[in-house]
Amino acid sequence: MVKQNGERRFCNKCDIDKPDRTHHCRVCKKCISKMDHHCPWLNNCIGHRNQKYFYLFLIWATLYSFFISLTTLIPVIKYAQSTIIEIDLNWTFLILLGGVFSLCLVGFTLFHTNLILSNQTTLESLQKHNYKIKEDGDVTTSKYLNLFDVGNKNNWIQVMGPKWYFWFIPIGNSFGDGKSWPLNSYRYSTLCDSVENLNDPTQIV
């Protein structure tokens, strides 16, 4: 529950301590645990409590868009081959609209699949500055160190739950209380060692 500089994470607007991965949403006007983003289409924040539901929404919306495109395209092609009458523009528009939505949703779904497998949020993937480390032990400027990445399988289970037959059903079985998170032990120990080296006078050249 501390920042990179060691200061505690505190929300001045809510007047509460902020656990790791918690951010204040200016639209919802409250702190959201494991906040991913504020979704204007759903008029709600996506975070720890509803990340699975949002991900399932993306998957089913993608499949539905493809279904609309294909079920519209196939009869239109057959109709066009069997008649000389011009096809209604509404059908063409529906096919194009379904195709565009399908492609956009596929990209969005793949992006959030990657976030789940790497145990990141959209905000964390954009900021990437909470925990950093360099080869020489400097933790101020370097590559991003994701302490919450505990492997693809465990990352997936944290969000989707341990029972595979509930993965694609909107049933809340995600792990965690939204305040504390399992850490990658190797990366955490590496970070601790680097901090100790910085505080050790014998390591200063």
UniProtKB/TrEMBL annotation:
Keywords, sorted A to Z:
Acyltransferase, Lipoprotein, Membrane, Palmitate, Transferase, Transmembrane, Transmembrane helix
* Subcellular location, record wording: Membrane
Q: Into which EC class is this enzyme placed?
A: transferase
The answer, when asked if Phosphoprotein is one of the entry's keywords, is: no
Q: Which Pfam families match?
A: DHHC
In this chain the Palmitoyltransferase DHHC domain maps to 5-128
Q: What is its EC number?
A: 2.3.1.225
What cellular component GO annotations does this protein have?
membrane
Q: Does the keyword Transcription regulation apply?
A: no
GO MF annotation list: protein-cysteine S-palmitoyltransferase activity
Q: Which domain of life is it from?
A: Eukaryota
Instruction: Name the reaction it catalyses.
Output: L-cysteinyl-[protein] + hexadecanoyl-CoA = S-hexadecanoyl-L-cysteinyl-[protein] + CoA
Q: How the protein sits in the membrane? A: Multi-pass membrane protein
Q: Which family does it belong to?
A: Belongs to the DHHC palmitoyltransferase family.
Domain note = The DHHC domain is required for palmitoyltransferase activity.
Protein name as annotated = Palmitoyltransferase
List the source organism: Rhizophagus irregularis
